Amino acid sequence: MIFEYCPNCKAYRGFKRHFTIWTLILVCLTWGAWILALPFYPKRCIVCGMLYDEARKINKKRKQKEQQQENNENLNITPEK
What we know:
By secondary structure, the protein is of the alpha+beta class. It has one domain (about 1-75). It contains two helices and three strands; from the N terminus they run ββαβα. It has helices at about 20-30, 50-75, and strands at about 1-5, 10-15, 45. The longest helix has 25 residues, at about 50-75. The mean pLDDT is about 90.
């Protein structure tokens, strides 16, 4: 499980792969071959279901925006003479 800030929940949550009964059925129907597909299941927020990759993209944009605002604030501050 990976812990990351979930923009949907607005809190730090765990992200993990979620397997259902249909996963088990597919594994049985394909005589176990479907097990090879399990590592490619997307990681999702355990509360709201948001994809981990989407959360990372949003968090990256948010951090870039915060850094840019901080840089702009630092540029506007000039020492008085």
